[in-house]
Structure formats: C-alpha cells, structure tokens
Amino acid sequence: MRTLLLTALVLFSFLVQSQPKTIDAAKIKVQWEVIENSHQNKSQFLSAFTFTNTGKEDIPAVGWTLYFNFVRAVDPTSVTGGVMIERVNGDFFKLYPKPDFKGIKAGASLRVEFVSSDWVVNFTDAPAGIYIVWAHAPEKGVVITDYTIKPSTEPKQYLRFPGDKIGLITPAALYDQNKNTLPVAADKLVKIFPTPVSYREERGFFALSKDIVIVADAAFRNEAEILGSDLFTIFKTKPPIVTTEGSAKKMIQLVKNSLPEEAYELHVTAEKITIAASSGVGVFYGIQSLKSLLPVQSWSKSQSTVAIPLVTVEDAPRFSHRAFFLDVSRNFQRKEQILKTLNLMALYKLNVFHLHLNDDEGWRLEIPALPELTEIGSKRGHSLTGSTHLPPSYGSGPDVNNPYGTGYYSKADYIEILKYATARHIRVIPEIETPGHARAAVKSMAARYERLLKQGKKEEAEKYLLHDPEDQSQYRSVQGWNDNVINVALPSAYTFLETVVDEITAMYKQAGAPLNTIHFGGDEVPAGVWEKSPLCKKLIDENASVNNVDDLWYYFYGKINTMLQKKGLTMYGWEEISMRKTKLDGNNTYIPNPDFVKDRFQVDVWNNVLGWGAEDLAYQLANAGYKVVLSCVSNFYFDMAYHKAFDEPGYYWGAFIDVDKPYYFIPYDYFKNAKEDKYGNALNKSIFIGKERLTDYGRSNIVGIQGLLWSETVQGAERMEYMILPKFLGLAERAWAKDPAWGTEKDAAQSDKLYQQAWSEFIATAGWRELPRLDYYAGGFQYRIPSPGAVVQDGKVQVNMQYPGFTIRYTTDGKEPSLKSPVYTSPIAVKGTIKLKAFNQKGRAGKTSVVTNP
C-alpha cells in the first residue's frame, strides 16, 4: 500500500511540474495594427498582432490558446510568428502555438503578421473580444484586458484599393461640407417636426401650466392618459381628465371628427388647445405635435408655466408604413432600452417597430413550448462543445453573462413591450429569420434532439429538428458560418415554425396588440446549401414541382405562406423571398418571382448599393406587384459609419451615412438625388442608364420607408443611440412629410437651390430644437455630436459646425478642450496646434478636431 501511495505521489508531482505555468492575463499586452490595404495589389490586407509579456514569468511555448472575433477571413498560410490562426466558425477564431514555438520571454514581444480578406478602415474592423484559455482549464476563458488598436494614419493603411480616392475625414473636409449651409434664425422655424402638411403661426402664446384640464372624448381615453403622463413629467402634477368642459378655465380638448384615420388638426389659441381627429391614432399624432411646440427646455426640469405659440395645423402622414428596424440578435438591447426607443419612435410619429429577434448569434424571445431556444440560443460564451450555449461573436467574450452576447425577452417582457407599443399606436412586427441566419435556432434544436435521443425518445427528439444529420453539404455564409441554415426538406422544420408562430400569436392576443404579418427573413442563404442532403434529394425526386436545389426556396416559402394564410397572416420578408433564379444568355440572373405576386407578399428591399448593379431592384419589385418597404442600404442603414474616420464606428460596405443621406432620399425617384457611390466618391450617374423606373402602378406598391440598425458593431444603449441619432430625424421627415419641392422640381439648378434652403432649415431645426429636446426627453439620448470643421484662412483658424446650437471650445496648449476652455466666437489668430470640441447644453462633447496654424 505504501509503495502504491508513493508511486501515486511521484506521478502527481510529475504531472503538476509538466503543466505549463498559468500567466496572469493582465500581464499580456496586445496591440493590433493595419500594415497595408491592397496587399500585393489584391483585395486583401496585411495586419499584425504584437504580443508583449509585461510580467516576470515567461509565456510558455505550449498549453494555451487565444480566441477572438474578427469579421474578415484569415489566410492561415500567411500567419507568421510561429503560431497558427484558424477559423472556428462564423467570426470566431483561435490563435495557438505551432510545435516549434519558443514562447515569449518576460519583457519580450512577439509580432504576428497575417493576411485577411477585403480591407479595413476603422477601429470596429479590428479583432475583438480577445481571451486566453489554458490547457489545464479548457472550459475557462480569461479576458485580455490590455488590448489596444493602433490608429491608421498613412494612406496605405486607410485607402482600400488603388482607385480609392477618399482619405480620412479632416477638419478641413468638415468645414467644406458645412460652409454652404444657409443661416436660419431659430424663431423663423416651423415649430413642429416632422414638417406638417399645413402650418400657420400667429403672434402670441398659450400659457400651459399645471392647472390645465384635459377634456377628452371617451374614445380617446388612452391618448388622454399618455398626454397626462407627459404633462406630469413637465409639471410634476398630473392633470385631471374629464369628458365635459365644466368650469375649466384652461383646457386641452381632444375632439372627435371625420378626418382620415391618421390625420389630425391642432389649433392653439390664447384660451385653449384643441386636437381633433377621427381616431385615437390621429389624436396621438396631434399630441406629439403639441409636445413638439413646447420649448425645448420643458423636459430639463420641473416647470411652472411654458409658453406655446398660437398655431393652426392640418396634418397627415405621407406613408402608412413608417418603420424602424432593430437587430437585437447580434448584440442584445435590454427591455428598458426597447421601451425608450418606442418613446423616440412615437415622438417622431413612426408607427412600425420591426424587431429582428433571431439570427446566427442569438435567439431573443422566450417560446415556452421550446425552452431550449433561450436556454441555449440566447447565450454566448466560451465552451469546448457548444452544447450549452453559442460561441462568442462580435467581441462578446468568454463570459456567458456578457450583457450584449447574452439576453432575451421573457414572455412577460414581450407582452409588456407589445402593450407599450400598442398604446402609442406602434405595430411591432416580429422577425423570425429563416431559412438562413438561423444558427441559434438550429443549434438549440440540435441540443434538444441530442438530449431526448439519449433518453430513448427518438420520435420526440425529431419533432422540432432543423438540420439533417446526414447532410454533407458544404457552404460558408457571408458572416462565415458553415452550419446556419434550416433544412427545408424536414417536416419538423415546419412543425417548429408553426409552433413559434402560434406562441407569438398568443402573446399578441394576450397583449391586445395587432398582428397581421410576421417577417420570415429570407436573406443571404449561401451557395452550396442542401446540395448533399439526402432528404433534399428525396424531396426533389418525389415532388414534381421541385426540380432542383434552387426550387427548394420556392417550396419553402410556399409552405410558409400557406401556413400563415390559414392563420390570417400575410407574408413579409427580405427582398430575396420575391426573387426567382433563372438564366439570361446562359448566365444566372434573378427576376421578380411571378408565383408569389398574387399573394401580395410584402418585402424589405435593402440592396440598392450604388455600383453593384441592383440599384433599381425596389422599383422592379414594386412594378411587378410586390408591396415594397424602402429599406435601402444607401440611405437608411444606420449601422453604416457616419464618414470615413478611424475612430468612427460602424460598417461602410454599402455607404457612409450621415444625417443628410436619409434626408435627401426621394422615395419615388431615388436615382435623381443620389450623390455618392458606396465609397464616398461623387456618383457617376451613368450607372442608372437602362435601369427600371417606377411606374404609377409601382408607386401604389411603395408602402413605406424603414430605417435599420444592424447591431454587429453596436454594444449597449449608448452606442445604439450614437448610431441612430441624428440620422433618425432624416428618416422621420422623409417618412411623414409630403414630397418636398426640391424632390419634384425638374430644373436641376432650381432643385439644388430649393434643396439647400430646405436642408438649412432642417439642420437648424435639428440643432436649435430637436437635439436639445433629446438631451432630456425620455431620460435623454446620447446622440452623436459632430466634430467642428476648421480651416486656416488669412493666418487665422476659421471654425464651423454641421448644426447650430452647440458651444465650440478650444485649446492652444495641446490639452483636450474642456468646459473650462475658451469659447470660440471669432477666428483664432494663435499659432500652433489648435484643438476644438463641440459641447451640448449638458456639457457632453463630441470628438476633437485638430488643426495647425503655421
């Protein structure tokens, strides 16, 4: 016995000594930098990690793996430094030592260069969520906290390809963009936003105070209650709501009339305020306009009295579908942020909230009949097997409790959201992404399948299965996944989707919320899918209407459409659901699918990327009879970066999008006012030659406009608000207001003149009224504050801003401007380096502009 014990102790001692030492992750410093775009004159770039061991212990040659997320493909043969970089799946990579790796001595550094696809411009392109896993603790990921991204400053680092003519934005470029804005006095602005159909202002004011009474038709009780809550925010006293005037001296009347459903009339006299409409939604929009009339400081603190100008307003929306899309799958947003977003939408009279509830990286809605969807599909974190949660994506890191990678709305949460939205006349359209972008669902149901199969419950295990275990098809999605598509030949796939639909429908019924459509996705199904699936082959062999793999697409959406019709719902999806693949001169091409037109599918058309060839797709589909929501990437993808700058977050594959892009969009002729290609160059309008224009019939099928925020680069509420505001204002104006004069004027010079005046008024409205209001409204929004434009002229630094209403402060000593720095009031004659920042009324600042006065 003593011999055995001694042997065991010796063996244990040997194993402990042979284990590589664990190095404190805080002592591992990581820097990433771009070396050059267009590496070797190809569509690829060279970048490098530099790992520095700041500790006193050597980083061992074996026994560790580094993980990170990266949205570019890496060429594994290009990796230097004695390590390997390998894609795990999606945007998830691992870096580990080769057999001949020597480790990193204490105080030493290791440089690892590698080639990746495409190009990079800003810091959100960089690897993210870096963590290390030690071999002796394979289930534990330790975050690398000392990680920096070196700014790109040289042309070879930020010019994407030889023909890229646009450098990083400079203060001089900003100054040039701003210089043509015309001065507009704040007191000359229309004081309701979005711009109403008819607005007449008279001299004088109505004094609104806490002794106001709301006199409301019984049909408008909901709207009266919401108005009362708004007034409580201002006066800290909730006004009484009555159905008759009685002895009230000051009142807001909500009156029923016979206007079209969403129309309203607002009349403010010195004695009272009257809002008249035929429906609750019309009254609600009249209330939002009344709030727009309030002085912007009304929301900043408790008031005793506020002055409202005397106006007569007649108003109605241009489009019936005025939407905002939010992706909560890639990065999650909490319920409280959703409710805040609904308040923003309501203020600007948007009426459709398109909620992207699932994707490859997360399932965000509790479906009680299928608990695995949230038990597994709503969580991201480090795991060897992936059987309990999804892998990290978009920098969410190893911790399964990360608030951006993990999270979902419980049934109670969702019902609360629905009730809140419905009270504000906003329809919530749930999106269940299928058949691609469905990895969270596929893996959740695969875990369910494995669990029940082990229990011997084969039939129950297969009931909701979404993948064919025998499928050998090989593919890679745009986001890098090789296992993210539902197998449409599985009967269980339709059982799954019908169960999800039934549970969602029940939630809407319980909430008393309208539901007439469910969005079923349909975009970006990669080539190669289903080609080697025995089940798909069997379906093709046995079904006369399915001749090949391409036809499986129409088979799938035909079955989904039939299922929805039986439940009184209509089909809604991305543009791809309305397209059919065919041949033209022997080449693959897509045309509007005639088979689904009769069912009046509604589609979001996103692909009008200027220069890709599908610029007219929205008009093709509308002319063919599809109901089209203009969701164009060129103007309405709010996840696109504002402009080309290393420190400006967001993607840019479709365009750079500042607030002017949604504002100058002309829905019925967006060719006319397109100004830049996707790279930011002046647009060569010859790309529109031969493109299909919108017919009068097609115009009747354009049902609305949608602004979209995909969330790959959006972690948290603050970044979300930065990306959508102030772009949101351009969306609101274009969705609600009537056709602007500059949009229909045929003379180009006159159109430009009209546009410049209208743009100047819009910018003034944003700067003087809407952004200051949003500093406090609904708790305050962290909108993007633009950087000052600056140039040196006649030996002095001249400064301007995109919006009025901000305070510009500057320094001449190299320090960052603060609230104690001098205010810019006239050109600066001081020589040397001048730093400038714009501050809002709350003291929050934007990014610094730096200019040198030689």
Strand-pairing-aware structural class: alpha/beta
* Main sheet properties: 8 strands, parallel, barrel
State which percent range the strand residues make up. Answer: 15-25%
Distance between the termini: 87 Å
Strand ordering within the main sheet:
17-18-21-22-23-26-27-28
CATH class of the largest domain: Alpha Beta
Low-confidence parts: 1-18
* Number of separate structural domains: 4
CATH superfamily of the largest domain: Glycosidases
What's the CATH architecture of the largest domain?
Alpha-Beta Barrel
What is the alpha-carbon Rg in Å?
29 Å
Q: Would you count the extended β strands for me?
A: 33
Tally of contiguous helical segments = 21
> Mean pLDDT score, rounded?
95
Shape: globular
- CATH-defined topology of the largest domain: TIM Barrel
Percentage of helical residues?
Answer: 25-40%
What's the arrangement of secondary structure elements?
Blueprint lengths: L1 H17 L9 E9 L7 E10 L10 E6 L13 E7 L2 E6 L11 E9 L10 E7 L7 E2 L3 E3 L5 H4 L12 H8 L19 E12 L3 E4 L4 H15 L5 E2 L8 E6 L7 E5 L3 E6 L2 H14 L11 E11 L5 E7 L7 H13 L4 E5 L1 E2 L2 E2 L8 H4 L35 H13 L3 E8 L4 H16 L3 H4 L29 H21 L5 E5 L12 H9 L8 H16 L3 E5 L4 E6 L2 E6 L9 E4 L11 H8 L2 E4 L2 H4 L23 H4 L32 H4 L2 E8 L6 H9 L2 H10 L4 H4 L3 H27 L14 E5 L2 E5 L6 E5 L20 E8 L9 E5 L1
Parallel strand pairs: 1-9, 11-12, 11-13, 13-15, 17-18, 17-28, 18-21, 21-22, 22-23, 23-26, 26-27, 27-28
Antiparallel strand pairs: 1-2, 2-6, 3-5, 3-7, 4-5, 7-8, 10-16, 14-15, 14-16, 19-20, 24-25, 29-30, 31-32, 32-33
Pfam families: CHB_HEX, CHB_HEX_C, Glyco_hydro_20, Glyco_hydro_20b
Enzyme class: hydrolase
Family: Belongs to the glycosyl hydrolase 20 family.
